[in-house]
Amino acid sequence: MTIRTARQDRVQHFRPRTHCLKKLEAMVVEMQDSKSGVKGSEQKLNVTTIPHVISGKDVIAWITNKMKNTTEDAQAFGTMLVAYGYIYPLQNHRKLVMCNDDSLYRFQTPYFWPTQKWFAEDIDYAIYLAKRNIRKKGMLEPYEQAHYNHLHEWLNHKWDFIVMQATEQYKAGKERKKPDRVVFDCQERAYWIVNRPPRRTHSALDVGPERLIDPNIDEKISFDQYRRMNMFYQQAIMRSKVKSSVSLGALVKYITTYKNHDPFLAPCLPSNPWQTDNDSYWTLNMRRVDVPTKMRVERWSFSLFELLSDLRGRDDFKIFLKKEFSGENLAFWEAAEELKLGTASSMSTKAETIFKTFLAPGAPRWINIDGRTMGLTVKGLDHPHRYVLEAAQTHVFLLMKKDTFFRYLKSPVYKDIQKKAQSPEAHNFSPAQLEQNAQSRSPGIHPMILWQQEEEEKAKAAAASAPVDVKAMMSKIDRKK
Amino acid sequence: MRSPLTPEMATQEVQLNETLAHLKTESETLKTKLEEERAKLHDVELHQVAEKVEGLGQFVMKTRRTLKGHGNKVLCMDWCKDKRRIVSSSQEHAVTMPCTWVMACAYAPSGCAVACGGLDNKCSVYPLSLDKNENLAAKKKSVAMHTNYLSACSFTNSDMQILTSSGDGTCALWDVESGQLLQSFHGHAADVLCLDLAPSETGNTFVSGGCDKKANVWDMRSGQCIQSFETHESDINSVRYYPSGDAFASGSDDATCRLYDLRADREVAIYSKESIIFGVSSVDFSLSGRLLFGGYNDYTINVWDVLKGTRVSILFGHENRVSTLRVSPDGTAFCTGSWDHTLRIWA
Q1: Whole-prediction pTM value?
Q2: Which residues form the WD repeats (chain B) (predicted)?
Q3: Alpha-carbon distance A64 to B53, whole Å?
């Protein structure tokens, strides 16, 4: 099935927007200021003397001073100037980086600056390569030769024109003075390295796939679009919003709650496997450990969502619910999730099972929801769809969230697991031990095996529990399909 | 060639134009009114609330692994729920021009399959195998079909449904088994570049970002756009929910990352610096939501303090633009993929 869209493919494709060009240009103009810019000098390149040559370290020093940042930052910025083609290297012309040393660079002429409006066309590249060929046959590098062959093939119908242009440019070039010619050759070569980079060169003009809209024009908004926008605005105005102090306060509260659980903010115990190459942290926190860690158990208390998301926590919650003889709410919630996220074809079977188990009068695991929701849900089940249990599921979740969850946290079951939970000691590896750890890395159990184990356990639990583990039955229905 | 206007047609045309102008004015008025409503409840700034919060210490984040398997630009990656495996996708390169860009990839929650797609306009699911010699391509299943390139894909909380976004301006929800289109989401005026599913308990919404500079929040059930934010100055390359689901961050070509508060319905923070002028390709939060990691087109990674709005660290190492960035499921590390053909794990 293909999705249909109202937008036409206008066949023309456009370069992605490059927002940074204006700022880069402003910067480059400043850098070339005769008084406050980067100091240039004359340098000998082979036999010719070239003016206005700058060194990498001078450029970086200027940027560091101007932007008030670190040398490393400035070097990264300098590399961008080279990668975009505003500055080009005289030595090692294929590596588009700014080196913090005496490496020589020049400012590119504005004629060759990157712009949003047009970009280097294949036909221009063909003319350039043809011109190089005229000047000295066999002068093209292998990657250029490959480009040339390819262009010769698909631009063959224009080849006479290309050769004519190349010859004209070649003749015009011969009439220039030698230093000017050398400079122009360098500029042109730099332009094409940036626009048609050889394989190992990283150029910033190497952009991603083309876009369907022209970033240079403002799209005309149609009648229909305005109508829809206005409707949306009206709804947005009406929707209830929360005061900033309240919502921002909640964001801060979340951060504070989870602060000690964030491996970037607090050390994870016993150690971060990526830093020490020791897997204990992952082994201790696996799906089916007998004794979870204290941090993990603490996290279950943060919200019902956390408790249910961690399947080990969900197991513990189920133990509590069994003691209270109130497992049907969670069972229903799990079944509803399976319905919502399952295959389209399994929906009606699942809906029927759910109705028989939880909703029908006298059902074995009848859930106690208000009459109105029950009525709507049962009616919806006549024509089951993915979200038919939404209302009931939300109701049940809220019930668990506001009541059962808090009773769980105060229960002997939870207090028990809190006591049992382990708190591993922090590792303190010596450099030699770290080296050894690095040598003995292993890939860990394949997730497919873990998943198979999980499915087996679910099936066992289904067989063991009474009257029926609906979740296991649901997955079974899915797997059969 | 258009036929000459008759007097009747001319009047009609004028009427239509008037109505269009009228709608445009109405649109502008409504937009202003929405801003006013939002402003009424705006009683405090994020950095003010953050004043009471402790500052962050120094960070030592290093590359712990460099993965060099790809022979080309790495475009996308995703973590497996086992917290240690990843799937990554790259661009197929022929001698003279790029052919297939696999721009999106995702790991299934069970760990038993991966999905990917790109310039082929499709999203395909590959069931994985324990047998290393098995030809995975043989069992490939085409699930989604768009009319333009696939920019992002994500499994919902199960292996049975996939959410996709595309250059054709739409997002869509698909049933994996049958390939059936379950819901489509129309509203972006240009290519949609990214999406992220809400981590909330209801799990029924997602956010998308596009070349129309808008970030839209959608109701998966009805297909309606329920919230929209248009404050970026250029394409939005990446969107990611705050771990609580009450906010999301975006990264754009305008070199800023922004934080949007869904309950207050407004932008609440901009993460930017004068010296940062290159686009953000990818963003993600640390586990607690305190740190926001951004991968940039100038080959660097900037780490932001979400509450205080300051940059706490800048990381170097990649030799070409960072195209994708994801924090691992347990928050112990984050992975970056780059056009320099490598992936790096940082911790």
Answers
A1: 0.92
A2: 143-184, 185-228, 229-270, 280-314, 315-347
A3: 32
CB contact under 8 Å between B211 and A239, yes or no, is no
Q: Which of B176, B332, B334, B343 to mutate to test the interface with A (most CBs of A within 10 A)?
A: B332
Closest CA to B297 of B274, B269, B328, B325: B325
d(CA A41, CA A43): 6
At A342 the pLDDT is 87
Q: How many CA atoms lie within 13 A of A287 on its CB side?
A: 17
Strands (E), B33-121: 63-67, 74-79, 86-93, 98-101, 104-107, 113-117
A-B CB pairs within 8 A amount to 328
HSE-up (13 A, CA, CB side) for residue A457: 11
Banded pLDDT at B138 (limits 50, 70, 90): confident
Q: Mean pLDDT of residues grouped by 10 in chain A (481 residues)?
A: 52 74 93 92 85 94 93 94 95 93 94 84 93 84 92 92 94 90 92 91 84 71 85 91 94 96 95 95 93 96 95 95 91 92 89 92 90 92 89 93 96 96 94 93 91 90 65 79 61
Strands (E), A56-180: 87-89, 104-107
d(CA B245, CA A251): 10
From A34's Cα to the closest Cα of chain B, the distance in A is 23
Amino acid (1-letter code) at residue A420: K
Helix or strand or coil: residue B174?
strand
Interface probe with B: pick from A2, A3, A252, A481, most Cβ of B within 10 Å:
A3
Residue-level pLDDT at B94: 45
B266: closest CA among B242, B248, B239?
Answer: B248
d(CA B187, CA B182): 17
Of A80, A241, A447, nearest to B82 by CB-CB distance is A447
